[in-house]
Design a protein that fits this description.
By secondary structure, the chain is α/β, with parallel strands linked by helices. The protein is about 55% helix and about 10% strand. It has two domains: about 5-135, Rossmann fold, CATH 3.40.50; about 145-205, Orthogonal Bundle (Arc Repressor Mutant, subunit A). The chain has ten helices and five strands. Strands 2-1-3-4-5 form a five-stranded parallel β-sheet, sandwiched between helices.
Length: about 210
């Protein structure tokens, strides 16, 4: 089933370009918003699967809008799309609960892939800019001590491969196990770390030296 997407950007031309790319790939665009406040209202009305969210907008920015939208348990996935490759935007987006971080100069295939991955709940720290900034943060920040989450050795292996931006299928191939088994391990990892999704689990792992 094709994901239903809400486009949020204060530039109509940018929204039009995204709409054209997504619809050409069979992705349904259910609505648009030009401000963060409008995005919050439209998201509640339309219940999309994925929101492509700009950061810098008049009034409420995309980071605050993301945090408000994700307050609800049945909230959609949010992928931040911005022209600014900046640490503060990235970490603010991840802290707000975003499932991805994409630059506006990404190609059409990368945009469509980000939407489909987010909709499937298989969000990774892609594109490469996300992993690069996370890793730089981990190198320059001393790992904070945290209680032992009680991960098994296999779960630690899975977490390390998540940090390498591997999908469930790729992890299964690497560890010579079934994809359903990988999904079970990922679910256990998220539960033990108290992480809401894969992105949050990888950020936690980097910050606490688990990788």
């Amino acid at each position: 089933m094709n994901p239903r997407v809400l486009l949020v950007d204060d530039h109509a031309t940018m929204r039009m370009g995204f709409r054209t790319i997504l619809q050409a790939s069979g992705v349904e665009v259910v609505g648009e918003a030009a401000t963060g406040a409008e995005a919050v209202a439209v998201a509640r009305e339309l219940s999309p699967d994925v929101i492509l969210m700009d950061v810098q907008m008049p009034g409420m920015d995309g980071i605050e809008a993301t945090a408000r939208i994700l307050e609800h348990d049945d909230a959609p996935k949010v992928v931040i799309v911005t022209t600014f490759d900046r640490d503060d935007y990235l970490f603010a987006a991840l802290d707000a609960g975003a499932s991805g971080f994409l630059l506006k100069n990404a190609g059409p295939e990368e945009l469509v892939a980000a939407v489909r991955v987010a909709a499937a709940g298989d969000a990774l720290l892609a594109p490469e800019v996300t992993r690069r900034v996370i890793e730089r943060h981990a190198r320059t920040t001393a790992a904070r001590q945290a209680p032992d989450p009680g991960l098994t050795e296999r779960e630690r292996e899975v977490l390390r491969l998540l940090a390498d931006a591997l999908s469930n299928a790729e992890i299964a191939e690497r560890l010579f196990i079934g994809e359903a088994t990988v999904k079970t391990h990922v679910s256990n990892v998220l539960q033990k770390l108290g992480a809401r999704d894969r992105v949050a689990a990888v950020v936690y792992a980097h910050r606490h030296g688990l990788t």
